[in-house]
Amino acid sequence: MQVCARLRPCTVGSENSDVTIPQIEEKAQADVVFGPDVVQEAVIEGVLEPQLQRFLLEPGFSAIVLAYGQTGSGKTHTIFGPPGVLTEHEYNASGGRPLSWGFFPYAAITMLQSLHHRGLSKRAQLKVTAVEIYLEKMFDLLNNRQSVPVPGASVRASSSRPDNETITYDSNGKWQPPQKWLGTKVLPGSSTGTAKEVILATPLDVVQVARQVENTRSASAHALNTRSSRSHCLMTLSLRQIDAKGQLHAGQVRPWWAW
Ligand SMILES: Nc1ncnc2c1ncn2[C@@H]1O[C@H](COP(=O)(O)OP(=O)(O)OP(=O)(O)O)[C@@H](O)[C@H]1O
User: Fold this and answer.
1) What is the per-residue pLDDT across 164-180, written as a single tens digit (0 to 9) for each?
2) Cα 70 to ligand 1 centre (Å)
3) Cα 177 vs. chain centroid, distance in angstroms?
4) Cβ proximity of 102 and 74 under 8 Å
5) What is the ipTM of this complex?
6) 238 annotated as a binding-site residue
């Protein structure tokens, strides 16, 4: 696993604000650190591109990108891009490679272009799913926000936190949910197993899906971020091979990433 830290530049209006950072004793280690001047393209080049090339060339290879950070730290910016850039116009004006676009549109378009250049467009199918986890429930962002069963959902959603007496850990130190939270139904499958899969055949399909996800997510403005996403979002890209009879090859399924 590679851990990368990306520092966001100051937003307009906050450049001259005084910020006091308390002395922190703990040290965190990262494999790569990108400063505030490092542009999207360079972050993609350093982090995503190697994974993407392995995904495209090594059978069975899959990868996950997880963007983690406090509100306003730039997760959506890194995964999707700055607000308003995911348009057909941007795509055409850039000659098919908008430099500000984030990981998801970049990865999907690179996959489509790679299949095209290798003459494999008709022998492969690229599909995407997108769900958000909001208030401990999962919703399908590509299917009218239909509720998606949470696999292994034996933990019931609860707004109340356990008090100190109910917190228990197993022998590995892993937190155990209180018994009263446990339901009886355990749903099988992968984390987004029943979400609608949408075929991505052209770069404009990618633009449409990315915009739909951006516009459908639960979001609201607060002091630190005017377009703050109030949920976690998970997206997968999978590539399936189609054989001479037009059948999808289950063995070639390659789930890709989540965030
Ligand atoms: N590297 C960057 N360069 C320029 N602007 C950035 C960068 N990172 C973030 N921003 C801008 O900062 C603002 C907040 O970023 P963003 O919405 O991506 O945060 P977030 O981590 O997704 O927040 P939340 O968890 O609240 O959804 C946005 O206007 C975004 O475009």
Assistant:
1) 556 677 787 776 665 65
2) 10
3) 26
4) no
5) 0.96
6) no
